[in-house]
Amino acid sequence: MKVYTDSAKFADQLVSAASWSSCSAGDTPALRDLCRAVFDDRPLLEADVQADQRWRHLLLAESSVRSQYDLLIEQRRQGVQLPDGLLCLSGAGKGLHGLRNRPWAAEAGNIHLSVHLLPETPVAESGISLMVLAAASVVEAIDSVPDLAGKAGVKWVNDILLDGAKVAGVLAYTEGMGRSIEAAVLGIGLNVETTPDVEGTPFVPKVGSLNDYVSDAVPYAKRHIFDALIAALSRNYQSLLDGRGSELIERYRQRSVVLGREVEICVDDATSPPKIVAAGRVEAIDDTLQLHLTGVDEPITRGRLILKSEA
After folding, report:
1. What is the 3-state composition of the chain as percent helix, strand, coil, each rounded to the nearest 5?
2. What is the domain range of residue 195?
3. What average pLDDT score do residues 244-269 get?
4. Nearest one of 126, 310, 148 to 228, comparing CA atoms
């Protein structure tokens, strides 16, 4: 894997490179343009690093002034031929966001990863499968920490929780013809070493980081989580390519923190107080991630979820 960075000190926290050498930018016109946008024309270093063959390029920016997820989508919409197996990671920055452009506090010590994929064969799955792929991969990465194995859960639709605190969120953008996905961009924000100072809301009562829940601060925790995350992404992506997306959705259900719980569904806007449009116990999550609530005739397709306290 070819790695580009604007800081060897930062990159060494995430990858093992024998040495870094100065470079102008990427090895294709599209990659060069992307590097200029990601690194804001800062001087670059490059190195070859051993990695899963799925991942061909990794751009490591110590800090970003805009969302790399948005940047990848913008370039795709402009017709730029981005390479397959492209990873972009920011150590911190501004302008990052979650679903519906809700702000994401991107603090140093955490992982802010964007992934560009071009399926070798058409993926006959809805875009929901890519969201599930990202969520399942984050959960597996957290499971790789012995103190945290089996403890992370998924809050519908794209939040990852530990002990009720949000530690991660995922996004997915797809392009294709009909139900056949030809390109995808995934976005993952995962708090590893730093807990952002974020005011709680009914939807996200508290936030946390992985190191809040381990017995001791784990040396090189960020590298361990990054390695585990991209390995899980590769495995789960292959499952999609092999037509086994239903297995990922089942794993999503198994790690759901909303199944069997009383919830309120609110309009997905900035209304204060939140406008509740449905409430009940979650009986099922179907294959398109629609929620089925007791006493509610129609499945829930969108909205913000409040998880009610257990008695």
Report:
1. 25, 30, 45
2. 2-254
3. 94
4. 148
Q: Could you give the count of Cα atoms lying within 13 Å of 187 in the half-sphere of its Cβ?
A: 23
Task: Write the DSSP symbol of residue 213.
Answer: G
How distant, in Å, are the alpha carbons of 23, 31, 34, 242 from that of 40?
15, 14, 10, 38
Is 280 in the same domain as 136? no
Look up residue 192 and give its DSSP letter.
Answer: S
Say if residue 167 is in the same domain as residue 291: no
User: pLDDT by residue (tens digit) across 142-186?
Assistant: 999 999 999 999 999 999 999 999 999 999 998 887 667 889 999
SS3 of 216, please?
coil
Cis peptide before 80 (omega within 30 of 0): no
Q: Using an 8 Å Cβ cutoff, are 291 and 156 in contact?
A: yes
Tokens of 270: 């900035």
Interatomic CA distance for residues 293 and 122, integer angstroms:
33
